[in-house]
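Could you please review the protein record set out just below?
***
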Amino acid sequence: AKPKLWRAKTSFRAVNPTFELVQSSLIPARVNRVLRTASGRVTERGRSPLSSSRRHRPSSEHLISLFHRKMSFTMAPASSLLSSRSAVSVRGSRAAQVQGARRPSLARSQNRSGRVTGAPLSVRAVVMDPGEQSKPRTEAIQNNTNPWSAESAVPVNKKARGEPVRIKIDAQWYDARGWALAHPGGERWIHFFDGRDATDVFYALHSYGPNGSSKAVDRLAKLPKCDAPPPKELKKPTPSEYATSMSFRDFRGKLEKDGFFERNVFKEAWALVSVLGLYVSGQYFAYSNPCVATILLGLGMVQAGWLGHDYVHGRGPLCDALRYMPTLMNGHGVEWWSQKHSMHHTFTNEEHLDNDVMMEPFFFLRPPSESGRPDSKMRKFQHIYGYPLLSIMFWLWRFHSVESAWKRKDKKELMFMAINYSWLAFCMPWQGALGSVFISGFVVASLVSATHQSEEIMEYGEGSEYVEGQFRSTRDAETVFGPLETWIWGGMDTQLEHHLFPTMPRYRYHALRPILKAWAAANNIAYRSSPSTKIISDNFNLLKTVAAAP
């Protein structure tokens, strides 16, 4: 098998200025010597380039250039892997290796306290079957795209009762036909991933141990195992997507060990106290100074939205206990929002699946001549009314929340909503009650929409696998007005980090950002980031461009 590996290009992956290696016995000895030198294990002068002093720690760019100078054969990113007929064996939940290779050794990088600080730098040959063809990943249909409708996509490949529904998590295929109806998120999710590898989505959205709870992975272990589906039902990733996913799973494992998913009790307490403080202050000034009260309550609703967003995504006892906080404080139904938002996370910017990019006739992100959907006479003015109209978003969410809870007869949600509406009606002047909801809706909608809508919008069946799809559809914002702006963003300026690791506490994202940037650069993946002012400007220009389109 070794000569074939020479024909397969290799992927060079670095994720942190404090590096560590994943080495395979199948990588030629000369390559390993170069990497050991670059990682500090071997040097000509006997001094490690990765000494404890910061001035001796090379950047990812320096290490990559060193590697290129030393290598005598072609380096290629994960997106350029050549195909070769050889089976691939995935061992464990975090690494993929070619059959016959021994498990790679790990050279750990530690700080002075002895804690592991590095994440993987790997060179790995990945070989795929050249006969593999990319197929439409998710077959779904959505008849009503109007924002006034709470309808969302449903699978069109749903099998008849009793037929196997096979999904792949890590290296194992599971028959989920019996579990589909009992799945807490609903049956459609199981059918969306029939014949697909759902590993990255599973770990992104579910409880699996390191993120605070193991409930989902414990349930997964009880599902019946099965063989892979027949070729006509199998939807395989491309070699590029496969290689990226394998590297990303290694990356996630290192972040878990470094404590990125652990919750800090003091930061959690401060976030909750600050939100409550804004609400109490707004209530205090409600009748003596309504303008101040409206602004304070508007900001409080913004921060309650971000915090509730963190709780609903999060896993563990704290998040479970505070799961309905956004329903009580903002009137937003958790179950309706979870379904909508999970679709957005799983199929980001994919038409017919992500409602956030299908908002006609309010907003057109693609001209009707391109999308094939009905036009509106108001489209040519959307850049004028667009941003003011965003202020209704929280009202729209309230409407859908009540509608959904009433249809489901969810007494708990209805009770919390009744408390919220009673407070607004009887404890606040109507100007403050209405104004605070408009202000909070405008702020949240303006920030969140800007990080996605100006990026790639993928047509039906065109979407990437989970990891590559997030990089294609999401952009980080670099705040330019200091700590106050960063606080208003509520962690959503690190939108890409959030989309890749939704269950991670939001106060970890800024520390993760430079590490993720280095990982993306080493895997030759475009990491999109712009100043916050430019992101909002780009979003406005998109609305204007589509408004002028024929």
